[in-house]
Design a protein that fits this description.
This protein has 183 residues and is mostly helical. It has helices at residues 2-19, 33-55, 61-82, 89-96, 105-135, 145-162, 169-176. It has seven helices and no strands. Helix 2 packs antiparallel against helix 3, helix 5 (105-135) packs antiparallel against helix 6 and helix 6 (145-162) packs across helix 7 (169-176). The radius of gyration is 25 Å and the shape is flat.
Length: 183
């Protein structure tokens, strides 16, 4: 009995120690000083290009707002890099992205086709979720609001593009996002 108690006590202590251990995290690779400096230069160049876009009279209001957003993103990433913080590559790429100043009719047609494909994928992922719930033993109703909201956004952007309205690129990017099926 004492032997069994001692074994249980050792097991509990071992479990307690394991529970206190720090989780292992994977950090993005550190940049050398030269890489950091080159990246800051690229971001400053993108920021200057964005500022020129904001100040240009021949750029639509929606595009100027996108350029202003991009300029702020570049500025934020520059500050974080200067102070030694690691920045995710996706945030760096997003800050370096330059929104197009104009869109041709052919560009508009291609963009609408991409948005329609994103909507089809939204429908598909929603159906996957509904099928999984229908065949599973779930007592909860299906929450399709994420897909419904996304499809409404896509439909609105397509409509605006079809009637020639200016659409912000941030809104287009958001509409192109396809939420994954949660199941």
């Amino acid at each position: 009995m004492i032997r069994h108690f001692a074994s249980c006590a050792i097991l509990l202590v071992a479990l307690a120690v394991c529970g206190c251990a720090e989780p292992v995290t994977v950090k993005p690779p550190l940049l050398s000083n030269r890489q950091r400096s080159n990246l800051i230069e690229k971001l400053q160049s993108a920021k200057a290009t964005d500022w020129n876009c904001v100040m240009s009279d021949d750029v639509a209001k929606a595009s100027r707002e996108d350029c202003l957003d991009q300029m702020r993103k570049a500025d934020r990433v520059i500050k974080e890099l200067r102070y030694g913080f690691d920045v995710a590559p996706s945030r760096i790429n997003d800050a370096l992205w330059l929104p197009p100043k104009t869109m041709t009719n052919a560009d508009r047609v291609r963009l609408i086709a991409k948005l329609e494909e994103a909507r089809r994928q939204d429908d598909h992922n929603e159906q996957v979720m509904l099928n999984d719930l229908a065949w599973g033993n779930s007592d909860f109703p299906a929450d399709t609001s994420t897909f419904d909201d996304q499809k409404a956004l896509v439909d609105g952007v397509i409509k605006d593009l079809e009637i020639g309205e200016d659409v912000r690129w941030s809104t287009v990017k958001e509409a192109l996002y396809v939420p994954p099926s949660p199941y």
